[in-house]
Automatic annotation (TrEMBL):
UniProt superkingdom: Bacteria
Protein name: Uncharacterized protein
Residue stretches spanning the membrane: 32-53, 65-82, 94-114, 144-164
Species for this entry: Streptomyces alboflavus
Keywords assigned: Membrane, Transmembrane, Transmembrane helix
Length: 173
């Protein structure tokens, strides 16, 4: 015989007393967005730093390969963070896709800007942006050959959505 009598479920089939949340937490889509944003920007800035550190030795093919690798890393990390925090709803999964793509794009564009700052300081950057304000975007598009630029965004978006979806299905909420 058990030392305690079996507990009866609470009214309406809810097994916990009112006012107490079920164990395991609950979905927090707002927190998922902000954590995904922080992770995305952090990885994008780390990639921009990598571009600054290796701009003398990095070929076009090397830039394309590292861009696709950065997009894949963003997809996995942002997808895991938002999937674990955001729950099973589709909103956090979509935000994961958007944030991962944003991190991949900003990594290359900021890498270009930081490299200009490293080479010539603020004078070169001001001259470049006065002459061609969209030069970071053009660098992203032209240096990555357009198709690779879109492929990187697709890897980041589809990967982040898929990872967030898969991770959220393993959550208890």
């Amino acid at each position: 015989m058990a030392p305690y009598p079996p507990q009866q479920p609470a009214p309406h089939g809810y097994p916990y007393a009112p006012g107490f949340p079920p164990p395991g937490g609950r979905a927090q889509p707002g927190r998922a967005f902000f954590l995904g944003l922080i992770v995305s920007l952090g990885i994008g800035l780390a990639y921009a730093g990598l571009l600054v550190a290796s701009h003398k030795d990095l070929s076009r093919v090397g830039l394309q390969a590292t861009y696709l690798a950065c997009a894949a890393v963003l997809a996995v990390v942002v997808g895991v963070v938002t999937g674990r925090t955001g729950g099973r709803a589709a909103g956090p999964h979509v935000w994961a896709a958007i944030l991962a793509a944003l991190g991949a794009y900003l990594g290359v564009a900021n890498g270009y800007v930081f490299t200009l700052l490293d080479i010539g300081g603020t004078d070169l950057l001001e001259a470049m942006l006065d002459h061609e304000p969209m030069s970071p975007h053009k660098f992203w598009w032209e240096r990555l050959n357009g198709g690779i630029a879109i492929a990187g965004l697709a890897v980041a978006m589809v990967g982040a959505y898929g990872v967030a979806n898969a991770v959220s299905k393993k959550q208890p909420y």
